[in-house]
Design goal:
Layout: H1 18-36, H2 39-42, H3 44-53, E1 56-61, H4 67-77, E2 87-92, H5 95-109, E3 117-121, E4 124-126, E5 133-137, H6 138-147, E6 154-159, H7 167-188, E7 198-203, H8 208-214, E8 219-223, E9 230-234, H9 242-256, E10 261-265, H10 269-283, E11 292-298, H11 304-309, E12 318-324, H12 327-330, E13 337-342, E14 345-352, E15 357-364, H13 367-375, E16 383-387, H14 391-395, H15 411-419, H16 436-448, H17 460-467, H18 472-483, H19 487-496, H20 510-518, H21 526-539, H22 544-549, H23 554-573, H24 585-597, E17 601-604, E18 610-612, E19 618-621, E20 634-642, E21 646-654, H25 658-662, H26 664-667, H27 671-676
The structure holds adenosine-5'-diphosphate and magnesium ion.
Adenosine-5'-diphosphate binds at residues 38, 61, 63-70, 100-101, 103-104, 311, 333, 335.
Length: 678
């Protein structure tokens, strides 16, 4: 019963067989030659001593110096992590990092993955009771806290990539700090079966004092890295299309510059796939006397086998071009990179306090991020960094990335805190305290979703929502779908919303794509249109030719199907029946979504524009939406994107009369009336 509920594919890793053992040992020896030369290796004894003598240590070291892969092994070798005392948890903000690092370290330790070294990420638990080093996403450690409030299965918690200051890392900071204190008191009282909890905070940037201060003056240790000089080029003019600029730069490097792989930082899966396709096309047309070009995409949703490909050295006479999200900034190090191309932006979760909704924003990176990206070019030799923005624009960047807790919708965080037993979220020990306003707003949202009652206590439904591996809004939708008997459809649509797009959009075929999309349009909007795509895909049994003709992104559909399967398994475990709606299917599906997305609604105005119900902002339907240009009484949308205008995407039509029903607590007062009569 101590396993969180959303571990679905709990594979049961076994000890290696004798035959495997031999291969594992050979590989271990081979990798040891590499490990020995990592910068942290020379600091091994000091690091062990540092952790033995201090309850908390902050370790700072250049990306690639070996912090994440080596230090857990040191702590295992010296017995700080042991079957008696507890395992070593290493948290990562990103799932891809957790899985690929675990894989690597399992090889270095000489064990099968999931046996002595493993990982736990949402929907995939490759660990066992024998696992002594466990890489896990910070979200998963938070979930483990639900069932193991003092994290007794661990003797050390390593909070990695602390500089990223994701919401979850910040929550963990506060929680492990308190657990450390509690466990210390228990040990002092002489309680059995408890040892003190060591905390190791690891960061790639130099802002260690702040972490140290927060952890009561923790000891700071610096691991000296090595970094070769990197020459930086900025563009002279601002670039209107950085994808195009990146493409041009890649070929300039390829044709004119000496050997060495290229790393391109982009914002997301869709861009990466577009550029990969373009590169593949052009690379095929290179003259035969030029070395080949091999594009390697790297983003979170990429299947593990493909992720592993970026680590493999390029074949003979081939230049590798890694196209990555900011995952390659500090969490994952790829060898062979001499050239970095930095588009200067990243996709971040943003929260607009004025209209009270969360949205994904393509946001300029900080100077500190830009320097990290640059550094990737100088790990093995002198390198070059091409910034696709001007020098003055670099000057205008924020110094450091603003902690997520200061920018995002806190509802999920507050729900998690509450479920983890932190009832007084206003007085939690935050490293950076979110504003009172955003905390209150989160509480208000949770209240309107019926996740907490008017005293701020978690309701039964709220408890259930915290169990869900989803944003509370989606959890609500899923829970409500039972009542509307359309859980199966709702699960499909939520899964479809988990990818950027189910369509593939080559830039030169925009018109054809638009034409293809029309075949799936449902009159009630994007939610049902998406469902149509999936249904059609099933009808033709995923026929490849059909996908090509209709510009269906097969890889994304596979991801959708995977998420869908996982959600179905999850619901089964939670005792939710995936019923299919019989009667008024369309309305029921939309009503289910509305029960979570009632704040993402807008009403048609006499002048033909839409005004958001919350905040009364004028919003436009994104041209990519099937609802573009349509006038209906009321719309509900999945997300708000700021570009030149405030666009909404994932739009469906709803009836104004449904709103009070969807969220009686929210619309119970005269809120709705007061926003419509303007
Ligand atoms: P840090 O945490 O200090 O940034 P890491 O421990 O992640 O450093 O990486 C140390 C070295 O291990 C890097 O040089 C990297 O190239 C190598 N490495 C890490 N993961 C893999 C992998 N999956 N495959 C091959 N090499 C890897
Ligand atoms: Mg690391």
């Amino acid at each position: 019963a101590d396993q969180p509920n959303d571990r679905l594919e709990s594979s049961r890793p076994k000890a290696p067989t004798q035959k495997q053992e031999k291969d594992l040992q050979r590989r271990k020896q081979e990798l040891f030659e590499f490990r020995k030369n990592l910068p942290v290796f020379t600091a091994r004894d000091q690091i062990i001593k540092g952790v033995q003598e201090n309850e908390t240590v902050v370790i700072v070291g250049e990306t690639g110096s070996g912090k994440t892969t080596q230090i857990p092994q040191f702590l295992l070798e010296c017995g700080i992590g042991s079957p008696g005392r507890g395992a070593i948890a290493v948290t990562q903000p990103r799932r891809v990092a957790a899985t690929s690092l675990a894989k690597r370290v399992a090889e270095e330790v000489g064990t099968t993955l999931g046996y002595r070294v493993g990982y736990t990420v949402r929907f995939d638990d490759t660990s066992s009771q024998h696992t002594m080093i466990k890489y896990l996403t910070d979200g998963m450690l938070l979930r483990e806290l639900l069932s193991d409030k003092l994290l007794l299965r661990y003797s050390v918690v390593m909070l990695d990539e602390a500089h990223e200051r994701t919401l979850r890392t910040d929550m963990l900071f506060g929680m492990v700090k308190e657990i450390q204190q509690t466990r210390k008191e228990m040990v002092q009282r002489g309680e059995k079966n408890v040892c003190e909890l060591k905390i190791v905070v690891m960061s790639a940037t130099l802002d260690a004092e702040k972490f140290s201060e927060y952890f009561n003056g923790a000891r700071i240790m610096y691991v000296s890295g090595r970094l070769f000089p990197v020459k930086v080029y900025n563009t002279i003019e601002p670039q209107s299309d950085y994808l195009d600029a990146a493409l041009v730069t890649i070929f300039q490097i390829h044709m004119r510059r000496p050997k060495g792989d290229i790393l391109v930082f982009l914002t997301g899966q869709e861009e990466i796939e577009t550029l990969t396709a373009l590169l593949t096309e052009y690379a095929g047309q290179l003259p035969s006397n030029v070395q080949a070009l091999l594009p390697c995409p790297l983003f979170a949703a990429l299947p593990p086998a493909q992720q592993q490909k970026v680590f493999e050295p390029a074949p003979h006479n081939t230049r590798k071009v890694v196209l990555a999200t900011n995952i390659a900034e500090t969490s994952i190090t790829i060898s062979g990179i001499r050239y970095v191309i930095d588009c200067g932006v990243a996709k971040v979760r943003g929260f607009n306090a004025k209209i009270g909704v969360e949205s994904l924003l393509v946001h300029p990176i900080s100077k500190s991020s830009a320097r990290q990206r640059m550094g990737r070019a100088g790990r093995e030799a002198a390198g070059f960094c091409y910034r696709l923005y001007t020098e003055p624009s670099f000057g205008s960047l924020e110094e450091n990335t603003i902690p997520e807790i200061k920018r995002c919708n806190l509802a999920a965080a507050v729900l998690n805190l509450k479920a983890a037993g932190v009832n007084d979220v206003l007085h939690f020990d935050y490293m950076d305290r979110p504003s009172r306003t955003s905390l209150s707003r989160a509480l208000e949202q949770l209240y309107s979703l019926s996740a907490i009652d008017d005293k701020g206590t978690l309701t039964q439904e709220g408890n259930q929502m915290a169990e869900f591996p989803l944003d509370p809004v989606f959890s609500k939708v899923l829970i409500q779908s039972q009542q509307y008997e359309c859980t199966s459809e709702v699960i499909s649509i939520i899964s479809l919303l988990s990818v950027d797009s189910v369509f593939f959009t080559p830039p030169d075929k925009r018109d054809n794509v638009a034409e293809a999309k029309k075949r799936f349009v449902h009159p009630d909007g994007d939610h049902l249109t998406l469902l149509n795509v999936l249904k059609s895909y099933w009808e033709v049994k995923g026929d490849k030719e059909w996908c090509r003709e209709n510009f269906i992104n097969m890889r994304n559909i596979k991801i959708v199907l995977d998420v869908r399967n996982q959600l179905i398994q999850f619901c089964t475990r939670m005792g939710i029946v995936s019923s299919t709606s019989a009667g008024n299917e369309t309305d029921n599906i939309l009503k289910s979504f509305l029960s979570g997305f009632f704040q993402n609604t807008a009403l048609l105005q006499p002048d033909g524009t839409y005004k958001s119900v919350v905040g009364g902002q004028t919003i436009s339907i994104h041209p990519g939406s099937s609802m573009f240009g349509k006038r209906v009484e009321a719309i509900m949308y999945n997300e708000l994107v700021f570009t030149t205008k405030q666009y909404v995407r994932g739009v469906s039509t709803v009836q104004g009369a449904w709103l009070p029903m969807a969220a009686p607590k929210y619309f119970g007062n005269s809120k709705l009336a007061s926003t419509t009569t303007t």
